[in-house]
Amino acid sequence: MAVITRDIAPELPAAPTAKISAAEMQRRREAVFQADADNRIEGQFSSPESNEVFQAFIRGEVEQDQILSRLNALHRQL
To answer: Cα–chain-centroid distance for residue 16?
Structure first.
């Protein structure tokens, strides 16, 4: 059972080629952490595979509107 922690994406400065700022990365990290906490309260846990999608979102490689389609595609494969 995978649990997202605050260190899902270590607090590192944004790389020079990063698409988002360090502040945006932190905002995304906190949003993912809060969503995961809410889900755990409801008894739902994320998989290591879905955590990869969330990590990509935190890093700025995936936008919010792409998360659901990536998760759906991932779970169709499982």
So the answer is: 21
Asked if 50 and 27 touch (Cβ cutoff 8 Å), the reply is: no
Could you say which of 2.60.40, 1.10.8, 3.40.50, 1.20.1250 is the CATH number of the domain covering 22-77?
Answer: 1.10.8
Question: Hey, what are 10's tokens?
Answer: 């270590």
- The DSSP code for 43 is T
**Per-residue confidence in pLDDT tens, the chain, 78 aa:** 454 554 444 444 444 456 899 999 999 999 999 999 999 999 999 999 999 999 999 999 999 999 999 999 998 987
What letter does residue 6 receive in the DSSP assignment?
A: T
Annotated domain spans of the chain: 22-77
Residue 28: CB atoms within 10 Å: 21
Full-model pTM: 0.73
